[in-house]
Write a structure and sequence with these properties.
Layout (H helix, E strand, L loop, with lengths): L8 H12 L3 H14 L4 E7 L5 E6 L9 H4 L11 H5 L10 H8 L1 E7 L6 E5 L14 H7 L5 E4 L4 E7 L6 H4 L5 H18 L4 E6 L2 E6 L4 H9 L7 E8 L2 E8 L11 E5 L2 E2 L3 H12 L10 E6 L5 E2 L10 E2 L2 H17 L36 H13 L18 E6 L3 E6 L2 E6 H19 L4 E11 L2 H9 L1 H6 L3 E6 L2 E8 L7 H14 L6 H16 L9 H13 L13 E5 H7 L5
Helix pairs in contact: 1-5, 2-8, 8-9, 10-11, 12-18, 13-17, 14-16, 16-17
This protein binds adenosine-5'-triphosphate and magnesium ion.
Length: 600
């Protein structure tokens, strides 16, 4: 007598359920997907006890015909695909015909539905033990069909479908032990709903828990929905993007580093409308932010990748949260570049942080006449250099209104606060600039651009700068002489404990050369010499920019401040410094009025 036996159907379904139904949130995900596949425009979700006691999803979709109801609960029965060809270019969320059967194997399920042509609704539920069909034996297929043989009864329903899933895991207590607290399970359900809501702003959603309303998303356009779902805080820092390359399209919102997170909780990536957690896409995004975001912080985004369904396999994960791309490399490149471009777009090209005011009087906007507070000795050597370069290089940088009368995005400087912040007025209100951070960013971008173009322009020092050096610094200078030369820093030993700096990159001539060289030596010593400069070039340039940038507590003149503003507008990624801090903030007139409780 053999020992291999076919499993009973219920057990087969319970095993399958283990993969699909991990917790209440996974049930909710399947039900929402079914409603969307059925063309719903309004979906109402009710949860009890974190979804363990009850998950009820009501939609206004196309409904299920009474004769199809038993099949809806049967395994491997679907209305969505019929052939391998369909599977390869599937456009619906569902295609396996497995979700409801799996759920019905581990919970009490009732489906009430009214197809458009039906005179009233019909209901099927699995509360009763299934009755075998006459003449059916104990073979596996017979068993599979039998499990769906629940009675179908008439029911009152206006339209659409209501699915109730009660007492999850009532018959598999071992699994129930893995569930977390009610609050945690509810939070997971809420997250599932938020993802769906982001993917489908054209659909209205409500969510209640234990009788109290928790979410209400009216039908909206994407940006309004994103604001509601991801939050008001995210929105002002989010750059919209929409990039197309052949059959690929990446659209959505990407937050500038001024809004970053300590976790990955605000990373929403959708592939053809399906929320995924995909290593390739996450990696491409991570890289796009690498240059502007501190390593310990995580970017926030809501991104939609659209492509030909034939180019992506969605049938690789039981919960369909992972996908496989046919052209993985091409997709990685495309996503990385599209994001990097969106994040780097100069301020002037991006939508202003605050909407321009309606008042026509502000259309022509003249620089204010106030003089800087406490104009003292013009000690900002770095800034003078910088301002001179700015004036010489570009007429728009003079701080005067541009020829076409358009007001510059960052407006005109008013004054400097404690040698740290520049105050400016633009058409939306008040602008505050962290001058060191802003200058650092500008220098960094200039250094990068300069190095891309060829060997850096250097400035030979009239008198070599002598530095008393430690043994480690002496060694580092010896080991990395060539690297330093490539960076435009000529440094050589001048004695047993002394280094002589003979030239510096011209861009940084006004900074603090001593600190610059010391930091570079330290940076270089910390990493094995084998690591190519190319790979670490940007890190080194960032170090240089930091020391080349004007220090706080330097007094600037108004033209210098205006030159800084104009340069910021033209610099890529100017709204954050190399450390991911913001370089400027806008206070709108509304915000100022609110501060003073001025009713307008
Ligand atoms: N809310 C609904 N409105 C209309 N039809 C539905 C609804 N929910 C389920 N159905 C019908 O029941 C069938 C079975 O649903 P089920 O979720 O088990 O499988 P599926 O969606 O086809 O595939 P998958 O297992 O990948 O989700 C669907 O193919 C669909 O025809
Ligand atoms: Mg489904």
């Amino acid at each position: 007598m053999g020992i291999i036996k076919p499993l009973p159907d219920l057990l087969i379904s319970q095993i399958a359920a283990g993969e699909v139904v991990e917790r209440p949130a996974s049930v909710l995900k399947e039900l929402l997907e079914n409603s969307l596949d059925a063309g719903a425009t309004k979906i109402d979700v009710q949860l009890e006890e974190g979804g363990v006691r009850l998950i009820r999803v009501a939609d206004d979709g196309g409904g299920i015909a009474p004769e199809d109801l038993p099949l809806a609960l049967a395994r491997h029965a679907t209305s969505k695909i019929a052939s391998l060809d369909d599977l390869e270019r599937v456009g619906s969320y569902g295609f396996r015909g497995e979700a409801l059967a799996s759920i019905a194997a581990v919970a009490r399920v009732a489906v009430t539905s009214r197809a458009q042509t039906a005179a009233h609704g019909w209901r099927i539920h699995n509360d009763l033990p299934p009755t075998p069909l006459p003449g059916e034996g104990g073979d596996r297929n017979g068993a599979a069909r039998r499990v769906a043989n629940f009675p179908v009864e008439p029911a009152a329903l206006g339209g659409g479908t209501v699915i109730e899933v009660a007492d999850l895991y009532y018959n598999t207590p071992a699994r129930r032990k893995f569930l977390k607290t009610e609050a945690t399970e509810f939070a997971h359900c809420d997250e599932v709903l938020r993802r769906m809501a982001l993917a489908r702003p054209d659909v209205a959603f409500t969510l209640s828990h234990n009788g109290s309303a928790r979410r209400r998303f009216a039908r909206a356009d994407f940006s309004r929905r994103a604001k509601e779902v991801v939050g008001e805080e995210f929105f002002p820092h989010a750059r919209p993007l929409d990039a197309v390359a052949g059959p690929l399209r990446l659209s959505g919102l990407a937050a500038l580093p001024a809004y970053s997170r300590s976790g990955r909780d605000e990373q929403y990536f959708f592939v053809n409308g399906r929320f995924v957690r995909d290593k390739l896409l996450t990696h491409a995004a991570r890289q796009a932010w690498a240059d502007i975001l501190h390593g310990a912080r995580h970017p926030a985004y809501v991104l939609f990748l659209g492509l030909d369904p034939a180019g992506v396999d969605v049938n690789v994960h039981p919960a369909k949260t992972e996908v496989r791309f046919r052209d993985a490399r091409g997709i990685h490149q495309f996503v990385f570049h599209a994001l990097q471009r969106a994040l780097a777009a100069p301020l002037a090209a991006a939508t202003p942080a605050a909407p321009p005011p309606a008042a026509p009087a502000t259309a022509t906007f003249a620089p204010p006449r106030q003089s800087a507070l406490g104009v003292g000795e013009p000690s900002a050597r770095a800034y003078l250099e910088f301002a001179r370069a700015a004036f010489a290089g570009d007429a728009a940088a003079t701080g005067a209104p541009a020829g076409d009368g358009a007001a510059p995005l960052l407006g005109y400087a008013l004054a400097q606060v404690h040698g740290v912040y520049v105050l400016a007025q633009n058409s939306a209100g008040l602008v505050l600039v962290d001058m060191h951070a802003a200058h650092e960013r500008i220098l960094y971008e200039k250094l990068k651009a300069g190095f891309d173009a060829g060997p850096p322009a250097t400035q030979t020092l009239l008198v070599p700068l002598l530095i008393a050096a430690s043994e480690a610094e002496m060694a580092s200078a010896g080991d990395h002489q060539e690297t330093l030369a490539q960076l435009g820093v000529a440094v050589a030993p001048a004695g047993p404990r002394e280094l002589a700096v003979r030239s510096l990159p011209a861009l940084l001539a006004g900074g603090d050369p001593l600190a610059l060289v010391r930091s570079l030596l330290r940076d270089l010593a910390e990493h094995p010499a084998s690591r190519v400069v190319e790979a670490r070039r940007n890190e080194l340039l960032a170090t240089m920019a930091c020391h080349g940038a004007v220090r706080a507590r330097r007094q600037l003149t108004l033209p210098e401040m205006n030159a800084l503003l104009r340069q910021m507008e033209e610099t890529e990624r100017a709204d954050q410094c190399n450390h991911g801090r913001p370089t400027w903030v806008q206070l709108s007139m509304d915000e100022l009025d609110r501060l003073f409780m001025r009713g307008r």
